[in-house]
Every structure is written in C-alpha cells, then in structure tokens.
Amino acid sequence: MPHEVRGVVARSKGAEVSMETIVVPDPGPGEALVDVQSCGVCHTDLHYREGGINDEFPFLLGHEAAGVVEAVGEGVTDVAPGDFVILNWRAVCGQCRACLRGRPWYCFATHNAAQKMTLTDGTELSPALGIGAFADKTLVHAGQCTKVNPAASPAAAGLLGCGVMAGLGAAINTGAVTRGDSVAVIGCGGVGDAAIAGARLAGAAKIIAVDLDDRKLEWARGFGATDTVNSRETDPVAAIRELTGGNGADVVVEAIGRPETYEQAFYARDLAGTVVLVGVPTPDMKIELPLLEVFGRGGALKSSWYGDCLPSRDFPMLVDLYLQGRLDLDGFVSETIGLDDVEEAFGKMRRGEVLRSVVNL
Ligand code: APR
Ligand code: ZN
Ligand code: ZN
Questions:
Q1: Membrane-spanning residues where (predicted)?
Q2: Which listed ligand is nearest to 44 at the C-alpha?
C-alpha cells in the first residue's frame, strides 16, 4: 500500500521549496523503502531548486541521508528491514566498462528506483540524485543502501552520503595521502574540512588550510589543520611553499571549484605532487596553465568524484572510525533542523554560516 508522507519539493525553477504530501510506493523488485532519519542540506539541493542541474521539475530534494530500511522488494538480499543504512547516489553496477576495469567510481550505470514517487495528484517527482530524502520515507534502489553500525547517530552517518564523503575521499582515495605527507586544502567549507579530517586520518604530518574567512580557518583547525592561511591577506602559494620548506605540498585539494583557486593548487604542489579537484566548476570556467609547468613538475592532476568512494567499502569503515573516536563527524553538524527549515538552511549555506545543516526526521 502506498505511503503518504511529508516531502520537501522544488516545484519550479528558482521558486522557494514547499512542504508537500508525497506518495511513496511500496518497493518493487530490487528496491528498498527507507524510513529516513536524517538528511543533510547540500549545495546540490539548492542547485536543483535553481534549475542548475536539469529542468525535470518538480524535484523531491535531499540526498545526504541515513535511515532504517522499512521494506524491501523482490530479490533484495544485501539489506533487510530494520537495517540502519546510509544512502548513496552512485550504486555501482559491477558490469560496465568502468567497473570491469577496476575503476568502479567511474561506473556510469545509474541505479535509481524504477517505481515513481508522486504528488497526491499523481505528478511524478524527480528525486534529487535519485534519492529524495527530505521526506519521512523514500524509495530507492537497494544498491543505494549501505548497512552500517546502528550505534552511529543518523545525523553523523548521513553526512557520509555526500559532502563529507566527497572531501574525505578526495584526500584518502583520490589524493592517496599517506603518513608524513604535507597536505594543503584550499576552501574550508564542509567538503574542505572533510578533506582535512581525511588527511589527519591518513597520518599527514602537515595540513595547511586556506580560506578567505578566519572563522572557517578556526573550524579547520578543529578538524586537524596544523597551519592556516587567510588568502585575503597572504598569497597562499607563497605561504604553502614557505610552510613546506620551499617545496610545496605533496597533495593539494581544491575544494571550491574556481579557476583562480585551482591555479593556486597547481602552483602550490611539490615536484611530483598531486592536485585533487573536488570543488565543482561551472561549464563556463576555464584555466590556462603553462604546459612546461605541467611537464616539468610531474605528479598528477586529478579530480575526485564523490570522493572516488565505494560505498560498501568506505561507509562502514568510516562509521567504525567515527565510533572509535578517530573521525569527528559530529563536528560537521552545525545545526539540526526540521523539514520546514530547509529553505532557511539554504540561506545559511549561501552566507557561509554553517558547515552542514541536518534535517532530523
Ligand atoms: N579562496 C579561498 N577560499 C575561498 C575562496 C577563495 N577564492 N572562495 C571561497 N572560499 C571558501 C569559502 O569561504 C568557504 O569556506 O571556500 C569555502 C567553500 O565552502 P562551502 O561554500 O561551504 O562549500 P562546500 O559545501 O564545502 O563545497 C565546496 O565542493 O562538492 C563541491 O559543490 C561543492 O563546489 C562545491 C565545493
Ligand atoms: Zn558499473
Ligand atoms: Zn550533495
């Protein structure tokens, strides 16, 4: 029997979100019905609402979530009712070219639920990133659910579903930070701070945080930054070089997605150093780099997709590290809010007042 629950919907381009009654069908083959417990507010939700992703309105927003499986459809064996799960927006198929070549983080198969959630008048909803978790319940493909230790708080665990995983993974998966490394992170929002936390977890000896905002730099210290650079006052490239004995950092993570900060990352890397772009640029952005610098400095210029994570490998491990007190996920939760407060949370996010606002359900 379909379930009528509350959901936060973006009805048309640029319009404020509204609370709607939505209809969530029971799971079909390969699907799971999830009782959502928490869902973080991410830039991508705002991007959907602004029409920046596509124009398949109305959207059911929310995608950074944890909850409890309520029911599963035919053929689902990996998760069962009662399991505490983190939702992911990139279930890998195991069969495409990327998967078969051992690079499943580039898997291009999308696994969204086949059954559609709707408004009460039957209008089909497009769930944000195939999830749609600003809702009491949501319907996903079972492969989007990863079972983790239920001792974790839903607010903390849910953050691994998007932004925090992106930043952690940029450092530990894409950047492959290892103990003793020097790491610089440019842009210290939730994603950048997660990269800092990842670098600390990986044993980096020096972690340099760069931002324009002193308050952000202070928060960055809390996640493990050993040095901070306010790039409004100080040239970050010169500062990173100076802090690394004139060399540059082994790994530089760009967590903003802008040409000028990408250039800073490029010039702040050591010989054979790695630059990881995890900030998302817009289609019009371009950079011009001296080819000789690419050639002469060597190393790697990489981008990180969803932290190059494998949910089934990374989510349970990171939750365990959190439960052992080795990874501060709670520190990312700036506030917990209700479903009614999502629009207000977008404002706080825009003004840079929060790392993450998390909806408690
Ligand atoms: N130099 C240094 N820091 C900057 C600059 C700049 N030119 N411009 C912005 N910043 C800082 C801001 O002060 C802020 O602390 O970058 C940080 C960006 O943080 P958020 O806006 O909170 O964004 P976040 O959620 O961390 O996401 C960062 O990653 O996944 C992507 O789409 C996401 O592109 C976005 C990026
Ligand atoms: Zn695949
Ligand atoms: Zn997100």
A1: none
A2: 3
Which of 159, 217, 256 to probe ligand 1 with, by most ligand atoms within 8 A of CB?
256
Amino acid at 277: L
Domain spans, the chain: 3-161+328-360, 167-305
Rounded to the nearest 5 degrees, what angle is found at the Cα of 113, between the Cα atoms of 107 and 116? 140
Residue showing tokens 């009528």 = 4
Q: How far apart are CA 307 and CA 5, in angstroms?
A: 32
The CATH number of the domain covering residues in 3-161+328-360: 3.90.180.10
Residue 125 identity: L
Q: Is 103's pLDDT higher than 90?
A: no
Q: One fold for both 3-161+328-360 and 167-305?
A: no
Task: Decide: 57 and 11 in contact? Cβ < 8 Å.
Answer: yes
Residue 216 Cβ < 6 Å to ligand 1: yes
Nearest to 302 by CA among 266, 331, 336, 277: 277
Ligand lying nearest the CA atom of residue 169: 1
34 C-beta closer than 6 A to ligand 1: no
| Encoded tokens for 96 | 């495409």
Residue 351 Cα to ligand 1 middle (Å): 11
Closest protein CA for atom 11 of ligand 1: 187
3-state DSSP assignment of residue 66? strand
The correct answer on CATH 3.40.50.720 for the domain covering 167-305 is yes
257-289 pLDDT, tens per residue?
999 999 999 999 999 999 999 999 999 999 999
Report the C-alpha gap between 209 and 195 in whole angstroms. 10
